[in-house]
Structure formats: structure tokens, C-alpha cells
Amino acid sequence: MSGLRIDVVTLVPEAFAPLAGLGVIGRAFAAGIAELHTHNPRDFATDRYRKVDDEPYGGGAGMVLKPEPVFAAVEAIPRLASCRTLLMSPQGRPLQQADLQRWADTCHQLLLLCGHYEGFDERIRSLADEEVSLGDFVLTGGELPAMAIINGVVRLLPGTVSTAESLEHESHSAGLLEHPHYTRPAAFRGMEVPAVLRSGDHGAIARWRAEQQQQRTRERRPDLWAAWLAGADGGLASPP
User: Which of 95, 112, 127, 194 has the fewest Cβ atoms within 10 Å of its own Cβ atom?
Assistant: First the structure.
């Protein structure tokens, strides 16, 4: 197998079935660019009720995901070279485009662990190489973050997007937000396409797009703007 292998440990494997029909992502799975496998810890529970959760030690609300079925599920998964295990957790480091690119470039396999219920037994953290969060909020489980990672990584794999150049000028690909896009008609409800984009002057268009990237980032994401300026070394901060 030459494609990226993705394994997801989840109590709701059916949640991932729609990915097979999701536009370019679905076509990437059909073409063998990536392959997706789901593993339900409930299948590895040893009691007659297939129990995967229990009350927390010390008391408290909710139920906690037990370590035994999760460890058993993970240990049953075949491992390839360059496998990275990611734990979906609101305590994890916020997901960045650079993470998606790193995993797409260096991994032959991604193993995604989805929590559920009130949380998971702390010992489950020992299975992960990285903990990943979508932001400072809490969801009912790790399935949506896992699907976001799958989408974000697979679209970066060679062959998924027909025009690879389009990936090079997206928001966050170079630390800046993407420039505006327009198509026909040239005028719509009083809103017109900027004249420079209709000029045919490719140098002027490139400069306009660079200026727009910087302006948008400065106005909408001052945190990204400050980081970009810090990495631009001063001399690169002006439009090309």
C-alpha cells in the first residue's frame, strides 16, 4: 500500500462513513491516495455488556472512558513506518495548517484517538504522540476534530487536488490569510471586480494580491500578522 493509512479509534465508527462520498476527499479514498479504518473499543471490551466507561475515582459527574478497551483496540491495529498517534482533546495544542502539512509530508499512517463521555482515563494519554484541539471549547466527542484532521491532511496529499498550485496560495499556507477571489460577472448588485484583476497585468495583479493578503491579515488576525512580521525579518514585510 502506497497511500496514507488512517486508523480511528471511536465509539461511533458510523460517523466516518460520509467521508467516503465527500467530494475530493471521497475520491482520494476511492483512488487509494488514502485509506480509512475505524476501530470500536466496544469490540474489545471483555465483559458481557461490552462496557467501555465507568464512574470516576474520587466522585464527580459523568462517566470516564476505561483504558482497557482503548489500549486493546490500539494494540490490535497494524503499524506502518512513520505512524503518528493523535489524541483528540480540548487540552491539546490548537490545530495549525503547519501540523496538517507536517503529517501529510512525513507520515505513512495516522492513528486518531477519539474520546467520549465526560472524558477518558488519564492513562490513555500515554498512547499518544500528540494531543490536538480545534480550539478552546468542548464537544461531546473527538469525532468532529478527527474528521477535520482527516479532511485537512488528505487534501494535501499528492493527487487529491487536481491543481496543486492552488494549495500554495491558501490562507495560512505562508502565514497570511488568502487574498480575495472574483469571477464573472464583472459587476453584480453594485459591487465590481477590482480593475487590476481585469487589466491583464500579471505583475500588478501579483502585487495587489500580496497587498490584500497583508491587509486582510492585519485587520482580521492581528495575532497572525504579528507572527508573520516577526518571521519576515523586516525587509520582507513590504509587498513584492
Answer: 194
